[in-house]
Amino acid sequence: MAAAAAEWPRPESGHFELFVAKAACKFNAAHFIAHPDGYRERMHGHNYRAEITVKGRQGWALGEDGYLLDFGSVKKALKASCAELDETFLCPAKCAATVVTQLGAEGEVVPLAPGRWDGRGTLRIVVKHDGAEFTMPRSDAIVLPLEQASAELLAWYICCHTLERLGGPAALWAQGAESLRVGVVETEHQEASFTLPLRPGGAVATAGS
């Protein structure tokens, strides 16, 4: 015989998780991995998908709306993070195996602009060990603060940007979140993820700390 509701464990005895993996949370992009030891992949592309899990803290009581976080807000934030990367070449600015240069409209060297760039100009990438050179319109690439455009580091990048779009770590902690996990799927059954633990007050370790 089923136990009466009064005998069920309280929701606060466990924790809630929210998971979003919508078809709209995707990006199509090109990349290659160049290692300092001399190995370089050929340039290729993936139809990436991203998914996110928000883990709530044990003992956290949901509000009157019964939400941990609103599904719509989480989906909107993740979709925007993916859209930033869509239909681009993923260029890691910190790769030790390449030299990345941005050229202006007249071919002059100009400061490398982070992120996407809608102005005129060219991006030039030279692989150190074999001299392979790639050039493309600057507007076709996104320059990322990464060592490689790997699925693992893309998961970290998307996690950080999605966290910002959700109001930052303090806002999530105040809503009962304990951690944020983002997975990046390159192909079927091939996924990397990054999990960011939150802290009381929302403080997290930063790249500059």
From TrEMBL:
Short name of any one Pfam family annotated for the protein: PTPS
SUPFAM superfamilies named among the record's database cross-references: Tetrahydrobiopterin biosynthesis enzymes-like (SSF55620)
GO terms of biological process kind: tetrahydrobiopterin biosynthetic process
Pathway(s) where this gene product acts: Cofactor biosynthesis; tetrahydrobiopterin biosynthesis; tetrahydrobiopterin from 7,8-dihydroneopterin triphosphate: step 1/3
Keywords carried by this UniProt record: Lyase, Metal-binding, Tetrahydrobiopterin biosynthesis, Zinc
GO MF annotations, alphabetized: 6-pyruvoyltetrahydropterin synthase activity; metal ion binding
CC cofactor: Zn(2+)
EC number(s) per entry: 4.2.3.12
Top enzyme class: lyase
InterPro entries: 6-PTP_synth/QueD (IPR007115), 6-PTP_synth/QueD_sf (IPR038418)
Family: Belongs to the PTPS family.
Protein name as annotated: 6-pyruvoyltetrahydropterin synthase
Protein's organism: Cafeteria roenbergensis (Marine flagellate)
